[in-house]
Amino acid sequence: MADLFAGIGTSHVPGIGAAVDKGMTQNDYWKPLFDGYEPAREWLAKEAPDVVIIVYNDHASAFSMELIPTFALGVAAEFQPADEGYGPRKVPTVQGHPELAWHLAESLILDEFDMTIVNEMPVDHGLTVPLSITCGQPEAWPFKVIPLCVNVIQYPQPTGNRCYQLGKAIRRAVDSFDRDLKVAIFGTGGMSHQLQGERAGLVNAEFDIAFLDDLTRNVDRLVNISHVEYMRESGSEGAELVMWMIMRGALDDDAKELYRHFHVPASNTAAGLIILENP
Fold this sequence. Notes:
279 residues; Protocatechuate 4,5-dioxygenase, Chain B; eight-stranded mixed beta sheet; 9 helices; 10 strands
């Protein structure tokens, strides 16, 4: 049977991808951030999952105001890096796992989650930056990827509770897949940041660290954070953290923290990473 054994929460700041692509990871500005990623890379290489479900949000690359799915599941055999206005990132093509992806689609829809099934979808920095953070610059990504795109751009976004319950449904789906696969799940986005308006550049490290703490200490509090609270405390883009709740919902209630890294600033945001593993 498939085994969903661990989850990673990580920021997907586009500047992090640019630092990787331009060979800037060891300059004075970026080195403290990337040094903190090394233990996560070593852990992931050692654990060697077969498939990773990456929960992320699109930034007007695959979707636009013409079509805004709340939850979109990629079921294709591969996903090309998106052109975000300056050419696609020179990173490997993302290889999918259609068999598990279609199983997820069937299980989630029959579990009463209205998933949009996507057969072709370019993937932008929301997905490729977490791969660069955790895998570096390989010739090919070391595992198959199933993209799960969440609308956190256009109101109304799904609530943290809805995302948490979707994570639990994903866990049920993986548990029912009758092939021996080692599966991990990433929740990406955040942490606190705001990109426009009078509060542009906002970072709330206290809020972010409490969020990281409560992924294992008080999940119920995180499940009930409202959109308004995210906006007030973590900026207009801080609501991306609801995607971490999908990751958390897919793990055991008593999942343990193995590692965390938190750094300010990364571009104009706070950057966080945490590894959670089922006991």
